[in-house]
Amino acid sequence: MKGEEMKHALLLSAWAIGLLAGQVSAGLSFTFSESAAMQLGSINSYTDGQKNKSSLFTWTPTTNASVYGASMQGAVGFTGRIGGLGDPIGTYGWMLIGAISPNVGNVVPGSSLLGYSEYDLFVANDDNSKWSFGLFVATPSYPLVSGVLPAQWTGWTELEPGHNTTLRLDLQGIEDIDQVQAIGFAIEGMFKGSLPPALRDNTYPSNPDIFHVSVVPVPAGVLLGFLGLTVAGLGLRKLV
User: Fold this and answer.
1) What is the pLDDT of residue 45?
2) DSSP per residue over 55-102, as a string?
3) For residues 31 and 120, is the Cβ–Cβ distance under 8 A?
4) pLDDT of residue 227
5) Buried-most residue among 13, 47, 114, 218 (CB within 10 A)?
């Protein structure tokens, strides 16, 4: 490697180390691996005014697009039915998809997120209707209550058909984050039959309706791995 190439490589390495130091000081980000996401399922559901009476369910998550029934943007797809009894009973319905004790340890090692500053998840709306999404974590201080959204959650983010986003939940300040009782994501649909005519369009779900959502882990260290390959490539160039 020539002197000028070596200089550029060292500068790139120093920049990468500085970036890593910044990430460490900011804390770590938790996300599901593909195998962990495959273990998530429906753990709680609610339809406006019809708690425990609505027909909400989710099928086994899949990585097979042909089984999924839609174009899958993420690695693991979930399909389910959200609706009330009759049409249009209620104005909305939602479902929590995740893991709950005693199975949390299967997706969160030791059921602890101690040392993590945030929980991230890539979420894609693969459906032909608008759906809203959010992330949640439940601990002894913020328990999971049937029919109630957890206190520790992101709030709703509405996604148009075919759109995706990365949701982020701040974990800092949760004293018992080392005792995770439930974790996952939520999906909500506003039933178009109950909306005012001015807001009623065909992109809102019917009551009931089928959703298609896929999730993908946000890999930690991908950028640093790429930088490492770039630096190595500078050295290999002389050998080719």
Assistant:
1) 66
2) --EEPPPBS-HHHHTS---SSEEEEEEE--SSTTSSSEEEEEEEEETT
3) yes
4) 45
5) 47
The structure tokens 């913020």 sit at: 142
Q: Rounded to the nearest 5°, which phi and psi values hold at 102?
A: -90, 15
Query: Looking at the whole model, is its pTM more than 0.90?
Result: no
* Backbone conformation region of residue 184, classed left if phi is above 0, alpha if psi is from -120 to 50, else beta: left
pLDDT band at 190 (very low <50, low <70, confident <90, very high): confident
Q: Which of 221, 225, 218 is nearest to 31 (CA)?
A: 218
Q: What is the 3-state secondary structure of 26-51?
A: HCEEECCCHHHHCCCEEEEEEECCCC
What's the Cα-to-Cα distance from 175 to each of 101, 108, 119, 138, rounded to whole Å?
Answer: 18, 17, 15, 12
What six digits make up the tokens of 199? 């807001």
Four-CA torsion 167, 72, 160, 202, nearest 10 degrees: -150
The rounded distance, in Å, linking the Cα atoms of 203 and 128 is: 7
Provide the 10 A C-beta neighbour count for residue 19: 13
Q: With bands split at pLDDT 50, 70 and 90, how would you rate the model's confidence at 91? A: confident
Would you give the DSSP letter of residue 145?
A: B
Q: For residue 135, what pLDDT band results from cuts at 50, 70 and 90?
A: very high
Q: Is the peptide bond before 161 cis (omega within 30 degrees of 0)?
A: no
pLDDT in tens, 23-70: 333 579 999 999 999 999 888 766 654 443 344 455 679 999 888 989
Q: Amino acid identity, residue 202?
A: N
